[in-house]
Specification:
Layout (H helix, E strand, L loop, with lengths): L9 H14 L12 H6 L1 H61 L3 H30 L1 H8 L9 H17 L2 H4 L13 H28 L19
């Protein structure tokens, strides 16, 4: 079987990716649509982001439900199971133990310790559930990667593409990307995310090339904004 190239640089490349995201962390909080005209030219990008947010919202709600279920199970499950198996005698024994702990003034310690453990375990279960759902939700990755292909204007492309093109074409070695061609045998910790990063980089390059050609053909300045015509970049997917 073909052996995948070394993935020892994945952590380093992930740090570079995180640096870019931190650099632009306030981007999604800004609103480029100051008029109806602006809302129209950013409509395709906004619609795509709405789909991504719906997918993520579903994952978040599912993880919260899982956390609540785990918390309830860990908090009440063992006691109910003991009572169900041991019957009335076991229920009375537990009640007496609680009363003795109250008299010894140690019951609050037991409650606090138990609550902290239950909360932490439930939080871990919820986070783990969200991580699994997010990794399995390939549609969100694919949608994000298509943002640079959006018709009209794209504020994310305007702000992120240069950094991502530099990351994908200069800072990340070509042999790292070759891991993606091995599919499940790639050995990467998060292959779907890296696939989305590479696709985003490539789509950014397509958008930049189209914008440069459009400016040249229409005699526009090098920094002039370009509205991508409908389906102009879809043909290059």
């Amino acid at each position: 079987m073909q052996q995948p190239p070394p993935q020892s640089n994945e952590t380093l490349y992930n740090k570079k990716l995180v640096e870019i995201l931190r650099k632009h962390r306030g981007l999604l909080q800004s609103s480029p649509a100051e008029s109806q005209r602006d809302r129209d030219v950013f409509a395709a990008e906004n619609a795509l982001l709405d789909r991504v947010m719906r997918n993520e919202r579903s994952s978040i709600l599912s993880s919260l439900a899982l956390a609540g279920l785990v918390f309830g199970t860990v908090r009440y499950g063992p006691r109910l199971a003991v009572i169900k198996i041991g019957g009335e005698a076991k229920r009375l024994a537990l009640q007496r133990a609680d009363e003795l702990a109250e008299k010894a003034n140690t019951r609050w310690i037991q409650k606090t310790t138990a609550f902290m453990f239950e909360s932490l375990f439930a939080a871990w279960a919820g986070w783990r559930g969200y991580s699994i759902l997010s990794q399995q939700n390939a549609s969100s990755y694919e949608e994000i990667a298509k943002i640079p292909l959006s018709e009209g204007r794209s504020v994310l492309s305007d702000r992120l593409c240069d950094d991502f093109i530099n990351l994908g074409h200069k800072e990340i070695a070509p042999d790292f990307w070759s891991n993606l061609d091995l599919g499940e045998d790639s050995g990467l910790k998060d292959r779907k995310r890296w696939q989305a990063v590479r696709d985003f980089c490539e789509n950014c390059a397509k958008r930049r090339a189209f914008e440069a050609g459009f400016r040249r053909d229409h005699g526009l300045k090098s920094d002039a904004s370009v509205e991508i015509p409908r389906d102009a970049l879809a043909k290059t997917e």
